[in-house]
What does this fold into?
Amino acid sequence: MRRLLLIALVAIFSFAAAHTTSSPRAEPATATLERISYTELAARVKNLKGQVVVVDFWADYCPPCKREFPRLMALHRKHQQAGLTVISVSLDDPADSDAQERAKQFLDKQQATCVNYLLNEKPEVWQAKLRTQGPPCVFVFNRRGELLKVYRNGVDYTDVERLVADALKE
It folds into this structure.
């Protein structure tokens, strides 16, 4: 009886190991890009109390945004298990389907498995709300939902990393 049980367990573990998705040939995760209003975005960020939150506003037409995006994804991968939530928000024109497709392709290429939104607002709206003329723009919130820092017109990801690490310790 013991021998039969041992054979069954070996067979189960062998089957499970052969069917895991961790093989190097596994397809990379596809990014999602959900349309959202500024009001909905603010409510969702507010509901993330207990998490440290980084909200990155970017656009396909913004070379500095795209250049720094891999650092955002590295930050996400490094700290998500410790309580970091990263949200990327595309400021590309919601009426331009080509711009949306380019944004989606960029997110796929970056394997952006964080939460990705496309802000469904005219530039005049988000410029007033974010108090900036354009991206890049990054907001960092602590676990209590308090705004720690805003980076406008340039992001120092070394500083963001330090800020996030400190906030995660709280």
Notes: The domain at 30-169 is CATH 3.40.30.10 (Glutaredoxin). Helices lie at 2-18, 38-46, 63-79, 97-109, 123-130, 157-169.
